[in-house]
Structures are given as structure tokens and as C-alpha cells.
Design a protein that fits this description.
alpha+beta; Lysozyme-like_dom_sf; 5-stranded mixed β-sheet; 3 domains; Chitosanase, Chain A, domain 2; signal; EC 3.2.1.132; 13 helices; 3-stranded antiparallel β-sheet
Length: 384
């Protein structure tokens, strides 16, 4: 960059020397003023180039943030997380240790090794499909009419209030008992094993689908558990896991990149929540990605059908309007009344959850196409 400044200034001086040699003295002063102006402009432009290049190099040095640390999740040696704009890597098996207060250099014997400062990255518009396997992408297009970009945006909107992260693909191996009397919560849509507050869990279906996706001729829940290396038994509709909590966490975490597990996750997600949500949207004449995503988010958060708090219950109180925006405005208002009750969400996370969708509706982002910036903006709120 300095060489370019030298080159530009030399050209200007050489040019002016040739002119001045053939000019009367009375015009010399005019051209000297002109030369000063040209020189100043060249220096100013070069200085801006230097500043821009310096900033670009600084930006390039800031690492992208890894998935956000989840309190209560199990991490094993080498796992990477981010917390408050800093990346960390696990030194050994750890659970519940906040990286900010339990970290240091690799020799510090702390559970977390402090990494570099980081910044949240924005997904490229043409990179949405890469978050799905070709088989899952085709399955979703065929059965829902929505493409990879639309489903990627839906999942970001869902994952923010679930995991405080837009990096939803990092949660296929998520497993945690969040003490909501629903047993273990698993994966990208929060499949549960069941408990006092969940008498019809979807975890059993997930393990059966896993067995099927892995090639079983006669898939079963027991077969899926065995493929995961886990142990448990059915007690009525409840899947009772007999492994220790720590062992079960590790076994589910090990499935993060298992292709059959990921495929089973999406098949179960579709059968339990997406299919019903689509039916409810289409029977009302609604087909936009935003409406379908709103219904799916409600179903997985509060249940698809049953009592007044489920998607079915909220829909029953949302009116009969055939105008999609009018109906959805009422739907969001009704959902906001209950979304922070019954352990659905910790207040005020539920209302912020609904606000993501309602804000996009008011902005006209109903197809969730070319909506990267809008999605990032509406998910920029603080979890409690």
C-alpha cells in the first residue's frame, strides 16, 4: 500500500515538472496550487485504503462464535462453545461449569480452556441447503412445500428460545433433564422420554425411527436404544431410561453426526408436529412459511393437540378470519397470554418467542426468503 502512494506521487511530480518547464512564470503559481490539490487527494485516497485494509485485517482475525454454552448440558474434551463473545474448548468432561468463571490456560486445570474473542456469523443466503442432508431436504420439499432456506430460517427462530443460539444443527446430540417433569429432552425439536407432566412423549417414536433409519427390518424402541448404546424400558407410554444421567447424556451426544439419527430426528419431527401443523394451516387456506413455522413452534413448545394450551387449543380461540394476517395477529395475541405459563417457557422468554414471529408478520417477511437479516434482528433478544 505504501508503494502505491509513492508511485502516485512520483507520477504527479513528473507530470508537473514537464508542464512548468514550458510555462510563463505568471502561470506557475496556478499550477503549483493545482499540484498541491492533486497530491492531497492522492494521499487522502491512499490513507482511506490503508484504513479500510487495516479494518478488514482486524475483522478477519475475529473468530466466528461456536455454539452457545448451555447450562446443564454435558461437554466432553474438545467440545467447543461460546459465551459472551469468547470461544472456549472443554479440557475434560464437564457439566454446569460456566466458562466465564471456570476457564483459563490449558495448564490451569480448569474445565474450560479460554479461546479467542468471537463474533456471531451470518449465514450466507445460498448456504441454507447445506444444513440438511439431500434426503432430508427432498423429504421436506415433498411433504411441506418449503425449501431449505425456509426451513433453516424456521429452525433458527425455534432454536433461539430453546437453546439461545441460531446454530440449530449443533443440537442433534443435545440431551438434558430440564426438570420440567417430562423426562429427558432430546435433539433439535426437544423430543421427551415422558414423565408426570408428559404422558404421551415422542422420545419412544424417535428411537424406533432411529432403528428404522439404521436398517432394521422390524424397527423397535428397544432396537433404537441398543443402537445408541442406551438402556431403558417402557412403563406404559413413558420411556424409562435406566442409564445414569451422565451416561445417557454422553450416549446421545455421541449421535450428533450420525446420519441415521439425524434422518430419524426429522421423520419424527414431521410425524409428531410438522404434519399436524401443516394440516391446520392448509385447512384454513394458509400456506406461507411464516404461518407454518409459527404453528410448528407452538406445537413443539406447547403440544400439538389436546388441552387448551396446545396448538389446537390456541387455534380454537383465534377466530375464523380467512385473511391470513388478521388470523395470525389474533393467534399471536392468544398465544402470548399463555406462552409463559405451565412451564412452557421461563418468563419473559415466551413472549419474546412469539414476538419473533409477529414482528416478521408485520414486516411482511411471510415467505422467509432472503430474510437472513430480518431473522437475525428479531432473534436479537436476551434469554432469561
Amino acid at each position: 500500500m505504501f508503494a502505491s502512494i509513492k508511485f502516485i506521487n512520483h507520477d504527479i511530480i513528473h507530470y508537473l515538472e514537464n508542464i512548468l518547464q514550458n510555462l510563463p512564470m505568471k502561470k506557475v503559481s496556478t499550477y503549483l496550487l493545482l499540484s498541491c490539490g492533486m497530491l492531497a487527494l492522492s494521499l487522502n485516497a491512499s490513507a482511506h485504503g490503508l484504513a479500510a485494509g487495516h479494518q478488514a485485517r482486524l475483522d478477519a482475525r475475529i473468530a466466528p462464535c461456536d455454539a452457545a454454552w448451555v447450562d446443564g448440558a454435558v461437554y466432553t474434551a474438545g467440545n467447543k462453545v461460546s459465551y459472551n463473545g469468547v470461544n472456549y474448548s472443554a479440557a475434560y468432561w464437564t457439566q454446569g461449569n460456566n466458562p466465564a468463571s471456570s476457564s483459563g490456560a490449558r495448564t490451569a486445570a480448569q474445565p474450560w480452556v479460554t479461546g479467542a474473542s468471537c463474533q456471531q456469523t451470518k449465514a450466507a443466503a445460498n448456504g441454507h441447503d447445506a444444513n440438511f442432508s439431500p434426503a432430508t431436504l427432498q423429504f421436506l420439499k415433498t411433504n411441506t412445500g418449503l425449501d431449505g432456506e425456509q426451513w433453516d430460517n424456521i429452525m433458527k427462530l425455534i432454536n433461539k428460545p430453546e437453546q439461545d443460539s441460531l446454530d440449530w444443527t449443533k443440537y442433534y446430540g443435545y440431551c438434558e433433564n430440564i426438570n420440567d417433569d417430562r423426562g429427558y429432552t432430546i435433539g433439535i425439536f426437544g423430543a421427551t422420554t415422558g414423565g408426570p407432566n408428559d404422558g404421551g412423549p415422542d422420545g419412544p417414536a424417535l428411537f424406533k425411527e432411529f432403528d428404522a433409519a439404521s436398517g432394521a427390518a422390524n424397527p423397535s424402541i428397544a432396537g433404537g436404544l441398543a443402537r445408541a448404546g442406551a438402556h431403558g424400558n417402557m412403563q406404559g407410554a413413558i420411556l424409562n431410561i435406566t442409564d445414569s444421567k451422565a451416561d445417557f447424556y454422553k450416549k446421545i451426544a455421541a449421535l450428533q453426526n450420525n446420519a441415521a439419527w439425524r434422518e430419524a430426528m426429522w421423520r419424527t419431527f414431521y410425524n409428531v408436529y410438522i404434519k399436524y401443523s401443516l394440516q391446520q394451516a392448509r385447512q384454513r387456506g394458509f400456506t406461507t412459511a411464516l404461518t407454518i413455522g409459527s404453528f410448528v413452534d407452538t406445537a413443539l413448545n406447547q403440544g400439538a393437540s389436546g388441552d387448551s394450551g396446545t396448538l389446537e387449543g390456541v387455534l380454537s380461540r383465534s377466530g375464523k378470519s380467512t385473511d391470513e394476517k388478521t388470523f395470525m395477529t389474533s393467534f399471536y395475541a392468544q398465544r402470548s397470554k399463555i406462552v409463559d405459563t405451565h412451564q412452557y417457557n421461563q418468563p419473559p422468554n415466551g413472549k419474546n418467542r412469539v414476538k419473533e414471529w409477529s414482528t416478521l408478520l408485520n414486516q411482511g417477511e411471510t415467505d422467509l426468503k432472503n430474510a437472513d437479516a430480518a431473522v437475525i434482528k428479531v432473534t436479537d433478544w436476551t434469554m432469561h
